[in-house]
Write a structure and sequence with these properties.
The chain is mostly helical and about 190 residues long. The chain contains seven helices and no strands. The protein has one domain. The chain is elongated, with a radius of gyration of 20 Å.
């Protein structure tokens, strides 16, 4: 699957792809890498939770990419897949919350100083990467690791919610493929007259 955009395309299929430039995808990639690290460190490799958490993280990332590529021909599919990504990350969030609860570790409130620091790092770096959050994700204290992942997931699900709202608004304004096809056919016919 290529990550290039199709900006040079003429006709009724709009530019699409380019998911690597989406903040939601960039964050989902960090979440995936962090989840692989976290599960390798804190779970027995035969624990079913490992596969479920890694799959939820992967699903979040992959569905953002698939939605972006599908957007050229189906706005409906783009919205659905973006929502699947959000739902997968929400499932992953619950796994991290379960970890904290079963380990009797506190879940941080939004006002916690380290949550504020992670949000600040997220905003202050032009393109945050795994390295931006590595100290928190790989911290020796499991409370910090899990809460860092929870914070990143909440940031990403918020971004995905905003993305879905924008997609809905764009669909209402511009329509989908059928409307673009009809418009292109009418314009072509009118040019021929």
């Amino acid at each position: 699957m290529s990550s290039h955009t199709s900006e040079d395309t003429e006709g009724f299929i709009p530019a699409h792809g380019g998911y690597r430039n989406l903040f939601s995808y960039q964050k989902a990639e960090i979440i995936y890498d962090g989840t692989v690290y976290f599960t390798n460190r804190f779970f027995n490799k035969y624990d079913r939770t490992v596969g479920q958490m890694v799959q939820a993280a992967r699903s979040g990332k992959q569905n953002i990419a698939e939605a972006s590529v599908a957007s050229g021909t189906s706005k409906e599919m783009e919205i659905k897949l973006t929502n699947v990504a959000r739902a997968s990350l929400e499932e992953l969030l619950i796994d991290y919350e379960d970890f904290l609860r079963t380990q009797r570790l506190p879940a941080w409130e939004k006002e916690h100083r380290l949550v504020a620091r992670l949000r600040e790092l997220n905003r202050s770096t032009p393109k945050p990467t795994y390295e931006t959050f590595k100290r928190a994700i790989e911290h020796e204290n499991p409370e910090i690791c899990a809460n860092a992942m929870i914070t990143l997931i909440k940031i990403t699900t918020y971004l995905l919610s905003q993305q879905i709202k924008q997609l809905e608004a764009a669909f209402l304004k511009e329509g989908g493929l059928r409307e673009r096809m009809t418009k292109a056919r009418i314009e072509k016919r009118n040019k021929g007259k």
